[in-house]
Design goal:
heterodimer; A: mainly alpha; three-stranded antiparallel sheet; elongated; B: mainly alpha; 2 domains
Chain lengths: ~120, ~140
């Protein structure tokens, strides 16, 4: 299992949204798509092609795992995914990076004392 | 009808991707179709098809090799044709004893042989080089 998240930072927008959607609970593909749309207030919509292309990479790197669980009334074609320990590490590292970016942005975008805008 | 189209597009994906995700993608299509329009999913499937074949399956290696070979052979072929039309090449040549061949035909055959040979060698070398290069990258 990988330990160092730095090679994967910064995450692409798709990867960040997928990991965020799995941070709260295990989800199937369509559930991830809906959660991403909800989190971004409809501004970022993942298609199944983009979703599974990214999911495959994240499964390969060990950020995401398949749970193997299925509810009794679920469509048998569905598969559920969860965030792995390594995936959580990567997500935390990315959030820390984004916080640092926001701090810098706030510092530099702070209005000057005589600035009315 | 759109389901058949979507299913066909999934069927055209590379085998590994298709076996792993096609059923899940079709399941999503059915859920979205029950709720509304599927035009965006069809467009997404076309993009996914291109992405999987060009960037994920390694087919881009062969495409890049063939394109590179065509460019080189075209440039090389034209240069050969333009700059080597000296008296030696224009002089009549006889291939075998049956029938004499015109200089233009001999030149054309020579050019075709050089072009085909160069194409094969360049495609082979470029494919081997790119494969070796990507293996080294994957290893790191």
């Amino acid at each position: 299992m990988q330990e160092d998240p730095s090679p994967y930072i910064p995450l692409s927008a798709a990867n960040l949204h997928i990991l965020l959607s799995l941070a709260a609970e295990d989800r199937h593909g369509y559930g991830i798509m809906q959660e991403v749309a909800r989190q971004s207030e409809g501004k970022y919509k993942l298609g199944p092609g983009t979703l599974y292309d990214n999911l495959r990479k994240m499964l390969d790197t060990g950020m995401v795992e398949e749970t193997g669980k299925l509810a009794p009334d679920d469509d048998p074609r569905r598969r559920y995914y969860r965030l792995s320990g390594f995936g959580k590490k990567v997500l935390k590292a990315e959030v820390a990076r984004l916080e640092s970016v926001i701090q810098h942005a706030r510092l530099h975008l702070r209005p000057a004392p005589g600035d009315r805008s | 009808m759109t389901r058949i189209l979507y299913r066909s597009l999934l069927g055209l994906h590379p085998t590994v991707f298709r076996r792993r995700f096609a059923q899940e993608m079709l399941c999503i299509f059915d859920e979205v179709a029950a709720e509304g329009t599927t035009a965006a999913l069809i467009a997404d499937a076309f993009v996914s098809l291109g992405r999987q074949w060009l960037f994920r399956s390694g087919a881009w290696i062969a495409i890049a090799a063939v394109l590179g070979a065509f460019i080189q052979v075209t440039v090389g072929g034209f240069s050969f044709f333009l700059f080597t039309r000296g008296p030696g090449l224009n002089s009549p040549r006889v291939y075998g004893t049956a029938a004499p061949m015109s200089p233009a035909a001999a030149e054309l055959i020579q050019l075709m042989l050089w072009t085909s040979g160069s194409l094969v060698v360049i495609v082979l070398l470029t494919t081997l080089w790119i494969r070796n290069f990507t293996r080294r990258i994957d290893g790191h």
